[in-house]
Amino acid sequence: MSTASDTQNESHGHQHRDVSGGWLRPAVFGAMDGLVTNVSLIAGVGGGGGSHQFIVLTGLAGLAAGAFSMATGEFVSVSSQNELVQAEVRKEAHELKHNPDAEREELAATFRVRGVDPELAEEVARQISAHPDDALAVHVREELGVDPEELPSPYTAAGASLVTFAVGALIPLIPYLAGLNSLALALGLAALAAFIGGGLVARLTDRPFLRGALRQLLLGALAAGLTYLIGHAVGSHV
Q1: What is the b/e burial string over 94-104, where b = at least 16 CB atoms within 10 angstroms of the residue's CB?
Q2: Cα-Cα-Cα-Cα dihedral of 223, 225, 227, 231, to 10°?
Q3: pTM of this prediction?
Q4: Per-residue pLDDT of the chain (238 residues; tens, 9 = 90+)
Q5: In angstroms, rounded to a whole number, what is the distance separating the alpha carbons of residues 22 and 107?
Q6: Are 124 and 111 in contact (CB under 8 A)?
Q7: How many Cα neighbours within 13 Å face the side chain of 25?
Q8: Which residues of 213-235 are buried (b: 16+ CB within 10 A; e: fewer)?
Q9: Residue 143, CB half-sphere, CA atoms under 13 Å: how many?
Q10: Residue 206 Cα distances to 13, 175, 179, angstroms
Q11: What gap in Å lies between CA 214 and CA 34, rounded to an integer?
Q12: CA-based angle 155:160:29, to the nearest 5?
């Protein structure tokens, strides 16, 4: 009987994906940013009549500069956010130590707002408050909406952003690195990557593939088209 019950519980169980933003957000942002940034850069230089060597140099420089810039930005951003959370955790710990009654009542009020019976809310708040570490964790989750034990790593965010930006930025450069001086091929390859990448991200977040693919393709085409026109206009006067 217990075995059947355990099997039933397992069949009804489910797991959630990581939504803390540790690696997925910077990875997706890095890949799409790298692709759109470099294809736009290449389109602008190509539209201005840049030589094969100049386009390769520009693309590689854009890849390196963008990848390290993205990694630095992600590291500083995530580190600053974590430091802010930690500062608020210290503030909450101070309040729990010096104003325990007020904090217990605050926790009970939170439970009451969520629909818990007043007497039960008081009892749950009392039991949680009897354990300082548990009380701190609950207060932080309820008031800040974060789990201080599961903060995203700035190193993971920076690394994911650096690598995926470089990969995305490399795609429109592939024809030139292969010795083909073809802007049309570079744009086509970037368009295909944007379509597939946008669709895969959409599926990862349980949205329609085609919707995400077309959205990313449209945004990338708009950026590349504008920079091509700018490059063409400037190149014709230089």
Answers
A1: eebeeeeeebb
A2: 170
A3: 0.78
A4: 445 545 455 445 545 455 555 677 788 888 999 999 999 999 999 999 889 999 999 999 999 999 999 999 999 999 999 999 899 889 888 888 888 888 888 888 888 888 888 888 888 888 888 888 888 888 888 877 788 778 889 999 999 999 999 999 999 999 999 999 999 999 999 999 999 999 988 888 788 999 999 999 999 999 999 999 999 898 766 5
A5: 29
A6: yes
A7: 13
A8: bbbbbeebbebbeebbeebeeee
A9: 17
A10: 19, 33, 40
A11: 18
A12: 125
Q: Are 223 and 36 in contact (CB under 8 A)?
A: yes
| Tokens 């802007």, located at residue | 183
Residues listed for the chain = 238
> Measuring CA to CA, which residue among 38, 63, 21, 36 is closest to residue 216?
36
